[in-house]
Amino acid sequence: MTNRPRRRLRRLRRRVTRSLVTLLSAAVLAPLAACSASDTGASGSSGGSGRDDGRSRAGTLRVLASSELSDMEPLLAKARQATGITVRPTWTGTLDAVERLASGKADGAYDAVWLSSNDYLRLRPEAARRITSETPLMTSPVALGVRPATVERLGWRPSDVTWSQVHRAVAEGRLTYGMTDPARSNSGFSALVSVASGLSGAQSALTDADVRGASGKLKEFFGGQRLTSGSSGWLATAYTRRGNVDALINYESVLLSLNRDSRTGLTVIRPRDGVVTADYPLSTLADASPDAKDAVRALTAYFRTPDAQRRLTRETFRRPVVPSVRPAAPLAADARRELPFPGSRSVADGLLHSYENKLRRPSRTVYVLDTSGSMRGDRLKRLKAALTGLTGGFREREEVTLLPFGSSVKQVRTHTVDPADPRRGPAAIEADTAALTADGETAIYSSLKSAYERIGGGSESAFTSIVLMTDGENTTGDTAGGFASYYRSLPAAHRVTPVFPIVFGDSDRGELDRIAELTGGRLFDATEDRGPGSLDGAFEEIRGYQ
């Protein structure tokens, strides 16, 4: 028997096994479905949020929450024991949550919203009118986490460092750093506001004139950014893996948690000239039921008790809001000026637009797209729709390469979004996408190798990444072991480019997860027909990592 029939037989056996497991699991779990959370002893925090039907239930709060608050799950379990209230969070980016509120998509689906900050929400009247109360539960300022050797090399006294000093070190090529994407993460947006306020010298709420006046310094500052991410967790992992980036800009609590969990030993610096601080308000939605509103009040009252505040600061390194409770030991006690937040949505959105299109380094992405025979029909249609949906959001100066493959790479087409003609590049990408056809076998590893050969070591001038979309498993060309050997043989400057695989169709999750782990990427799920877990949702989420 040749290799191809053997592979097809293995795939068939695997699918049959999965089907049997699914049927058996359903048979076993069906009698348990009637059990309540209290019957099973489950905390009810986030474990069931993906399977929950979203309906309002007595004693349960449906909360739209900033993803960085996922570290609160153990404390939510404690809160449930104390209050009887089960929190079912839906984790998302802060700015994405505000957009969901403003558009009305959150109406009836949630009882409360728990964001890092409501500052941006207040700039959106259509979102702000959907909340009726907000209670801060803790605080954490933006901070800079720097390798101790870098602090010593720069001759800094951590308590005296200013944003101007940080800017000067970056502009002179002596400091590099990572930061989350401000368009998707509140820690990134707060860092952007902190830097813009600090470098512009703004004494009140940021204005367009402040941003324009500081644009030269801001461009120099963001020229030193070497890591971007849609989440603080992946950023920390990438920072630890990369090893040659000097610092991270994030919330103080995230940096101290990183020190505890990965023993990075970062020196945490809150610039002396001011910071933007998250206050994590739990906010009741206007259309919540009376019972849900009572539950929000009970939950906020619990989290503001001295015992809960002590546990909160000790376990998450956020600062307590109750004056009688002392901050955890690693938290410095000296005060810092609170930098002004933009006074209008136009200024906030203008700052984001400038960052995305002018201030930060451009993106460079190779989309390795499975267009094998199994993609015929609806799957290819969904791929085309997802790619076409991205074209309206490509940034100026962004370089996009489409590398469709079947039994081998079919063609390679690269387009750049030219600021002088920003529609030409996306239009060409749309045309190439429309021309995709499905045929052949599935040469995943050979195609990934071609992507790395095309990119080379260009990561210093751009945020460089590879996106892999496949609906199956490798059936021809290079093997997993052969690709792993090839990848490990690459120069260090080439290996910093991560692969972000997307689970789609019948693709082997384990196989794709190993590709992500090998290259320092992250696996994205597109197994749902629509919504955040769909193919277009996965492509959109990856944008925060490019």
Description:
- By secondary structure, the chain is an alpha/beta fold.
- It has three domains: 40-138 and 280-316, D-Maltodextrin-Binding Protein, domain 2 (3-Layer(aba) Sandwich); 140-278 and 337-354, D-Maltodextrin-Binding Protein, domain 2; 362-545, 3-Layer(aba) Sandwich (Rossmann fold).
- The chain is 43% helix and 16% strand.
- Strands 5, 6, 7, 8, 9 and 10 form a six-stranded mixed sheet that branches. A six-stranded mixed sheet has the order 14-13-12-15-16-17, sandwiched between helices.
- It is globular and about 65 Å long.
Strand and helix layout:
Blueprint: H1 3-29, H2 37-40, E1 60-66, H3 73-83, E2 86-92, H4 94-103, E3 112-114, H5 119-122, H6 125-128, E4 131-136, E5 140-146, H7 148-154, H8 163-171, E6 177-180, H9 186-200, H10 208-213, H11 215-222, E7 225-229, H12 232-242, E8 247-251, H13 252-262, E9 267-269, E10 277-278, E11 281-285, H14 290-303, H15 306-316, H16 345-359, E12 363-370, H17 378-390, E13 399-405, E14 413-416, H18 424-434, H19 444-455, E15 463-470, H20 480-489, H21 492-495, E16 499-503, H22 509-519, E17 524-525, H23 535-542
Parallel strand pairs: 1-2, 1-3, 6-7, 6-8, 12-13, 12-15, 15-16, 16-17
Antiparallel strand pairs: 3-11, 4-11, 5-8, 5-9, 5-10, 13-14
Helix pairs in contact: 8-11, 17-23, 19-20
Gap between N and C termini, in Å? 43 Å
Q: CATH homologous superfamily name of the largest domain?
A: von Willebrand factor, type A domain
Roughly how much helix do the residues carry, as a percent range?
40-55%
> Which ranges are low-confidence, i.e. pLDDT below 50, for 5 or more consecutive residues?
1-52
